[in-house]
Every structure is written in C-alpha cells, then in structure tokens.
C-alpha cells in the first residue's frame, strides 16, 4: 500500500475530510452518504491513479488529485477523486472533484 493512500486513510479515520459542492451534489444524486464514501476509501487496496491538475485560479498552479475506486462495506462501488490538503497543521483529505457511484 502506498504512503499516500496510508496518509489518506489516516485522515479519513480521524474524520478529517470534506466534500466540495460538486461532490455533495453527486453523492445526493447517487444516493450515497458521506460515511459510505469514507468506507470505500478505507476499503481501498490502492489508488487507481494520480493525475496532475492545474488551474490559473488556484494559489498553487499544480496539484495532485488521487482517484480511488473501491466499494462500501455493503459492496456498493464508489469513485472518488480528491487531494490531501494541509490546514491548521493537519492533512485533510478533501474530495475536491467527485464522489459518486462507480459504474
């Protein structure tokens, strides 16, 4: 298991995660709850892929987004994409772009 996935799982276990407005909309549309998305991350064996994102609107031009495909404890497939963010000295896994049922 990668160091990044371990850090993500530790942040989720500690309850240090948040959702973007888009991720909240996707979860609501797909009938997912925040605990189900957290379960899927904790069940993940690996990060599916890491992509480099850039935007002129951000302070830092480049950031790395981690895509995780995994299942909840009930077996529902979940796709999430997010980044590790340092706030107040703690890493917070922030579901920046997406949190929805995987198809």
What does this structure look like?
With 103 residues, the chain is of the alpha+beta class. The protein has one domain (3-101): YaeB-like fold. The protein contains 3 helices and 5 strands, in the order H-E-H-H-E-E-E-E. The chain is globular. The mean pLDDT is 85.
Summarize the SSE layout with pairings.
Blueprint: H1 3-13, E1 17-19, H2 21-30, H3 34-43, E2 49-54, E3 62-71, E4 77-87, E5 90-101
Parallel strand pairs: 1-5
Antiparallel strand pairs: 2-3, 3-4, 4-5
Give short descriptive properties of this protein.
single chain; 103 residues; YaeB-like fold; 5 strands; alpha+beta
Describe the structure concisely for a colleague.
The protein has 103 residues and is an alpha+beta fold.
What topology, given as strand order, has the largest sheet? 1-5-4-3-2
How many H/I helical runs?
3
Q: Tell me the helix content.
A: 25-40%
The whole-angstrom Rg is 13 Å
Q: Gap between N and C termini, in Å? A: 24 Å
The dominant shape is: globular
């Amino acid at each position: 298991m990668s160091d990044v996935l371990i850090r993500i799982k530790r942040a989720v276990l500690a309850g240090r995660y948040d959702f973007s407005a888009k991720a909240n909309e996707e979860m609501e549309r797909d009938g997912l709850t925040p605990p189900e998305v957290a379960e899927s991350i904790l069940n993940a064996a690996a990060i599916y892929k890491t992509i480099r994102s850039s935007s002129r609107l951000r302070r830092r031009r480049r950031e790395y987004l981690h895509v995780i495909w995994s299942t909840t404890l009930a077996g529902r497939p979940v796709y999430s994409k997010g980044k590790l963010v340092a706030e107040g000295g703690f890493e917070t896994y922030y579901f920046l772009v997406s949190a929805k049922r995987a198809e």
